[in-house]
Automatic annotation (TrEMBL):
GO terms for biological process: antibiotic biosynthetic process; monocarboxylic acid biosynthetic process. This is Lipase B. It comes from Penicillium atrosanguineum. The keyword Signal applies. It comes from the Eukaryota. Residues 1-22 form the signal peptide.
Amino acid sequence: MRLHLISVGLVYGAIPLARVLGQTSPVANINLLNTLSNAAEEHESKVLSNLVSDLQQARSIPTPSTPEEALSALQHSSGLLKAFSSVVDIAQGITAAGLVPPEILSFLNGYTDSKLNSLDNRHPAPKDAIYPKSKRDAPYSLSEGTLRSAIHIPKTFGYGRNGKTPVILIPGTAIPSGTTWYYTFSKLGNSTDADVVWVNLPRASLNDAQVNAEYVAYAINYISSVCSKPTAIISWSQGGLNTQWALKYWPSTRPALQDFIAMSPDFHGTVVEAVICPALSYIACTPSILQQAWTSQFIQTLRSSSGDSAYVPTTIIYSSFDEIVEPMSGPNASALLTDTRNVGVILAHLQSICPGQPAGGFYTHEGVLYNPLAWALAIDAITHPGPGSLTRLDLKQVCGMTMAPELDLTDLLGTEGLLLIAAAELGTYEPQAAREPCIVGYASNGGGA
C-alpha cells in the first residue's frame, strides 16, 4: 500500500491537474483520503487523522522563488517548529509552505517505479572473493547475488579507470536511495573527480538495520574490488549507523574505504524516535526506527567495544536544527564519534563553524544535504588524504553561501519534498514491530574488534 504523492500536493496546493500530469485523475485524491482515513482508524493515530482533516481543507501558497525565500518559509513552517512534531506534521508543513511545486511532485510520485531505486541491477562477479572477504568478517545472511543486485551503478561510472574516486551513497530511513540522492550528491561527479554509485536498501531502509549493514559491507568490498582502489562513502541519517556497523563487524571493509562522510548521522540514536511513527500510535513501529532509539540494544551494541570511535578517516556534518535526530548540539550530540584509533575525525557542527552566517542557519535533518559547508567538506575529504579539513576551505566564502554552488533552488525544494515519501513509507509499513529485532549472533558474541 502506497500513498499517491502527486495527490498530496494536488490537495494541499490546489494545483491544476494539467500542470502536473495531464492524465492524472481526481479519483486519486479520493483514494488518498480513504487510505489515510483507514490508516488513521486502524492505528488510532491522531496525527494521521489531523492530516486527513487538513487535506480536506486544502489551500494554495506560492512556491518560493529563491533559496533564501525557501529557507525562510521552511523556518517559519509551524509543522517543523512545533515541539515533538511527527513526520506527517513535517511533511504537512513543507507542502503547505509551498515547498513542493508540481514538477517535483511529478518526480516524487514515480519513485516506486523508478529504476533509480531498483533492487534488480546486473553486475559482473567481483575480481576477488568477497563473500565474505576475511575470516574475521561476520557471516552474511543474504545471498551474494541479492547484495550485489542492490548496487546501482550509473552507465557513466568509470570503474577507477578514469582516475576518479568511487563514492558510494548510503541512504537514510524511509526514503529509497536513488530518490534520496537525486537532487544532491548524485551530482557530485559534476564538480569533482568522483564517480558515484548508490546502494538500494529494501523497504526504504525500514527493515532490520543489521541486515541493511550487510548491503553496505558488501558494496564497499565490491566497488573497491571492481575499481581496484579504495572507495569513499557519503551517508545520510541511518546510513551512518549502517556504515559504522559494517566497519565494525566486517573488518575487511576498513582498508577498502578511504573516507567515511556522514551527513546528519545518529550514532547515539535519537531521543524522539516515537515521533517518526505517526501511523502507529507510538506503540509499534518499523524495525530500524526502533533500533535508532537512544537506549536501543542496537545502539548500545554498536557503541560497545570502541564502536563509538571511527574506524577510517571520518567527516561528520550535523545541524542543531535537526528535526529527526535529537540532541544534535553540545557534548551529547548524537552525531559524535571519538578517534581512539587515530584515523582522523572532524566534527563539523554547522552553527559552530558558521555562527550567524547563511551556511550556519536553519538547516534541518535533510537540509544538511544541500548545505554549502557540507558539500565543501565532502569534496575536500574525497580529494585529500584523511578527513575533510576546515583549514583548506575558504570559510568566509563558504559560510556566506545559502546552499552548495553545485545545486539550485529545484534541488533544495526536491530534497525537502523527500519527506512526503517518508510520510508515505512510514504510514503504510507492514508488518509493524512492537520491539526491535534481536541482536544477531556475531554481534552478541562480542565480535568486531
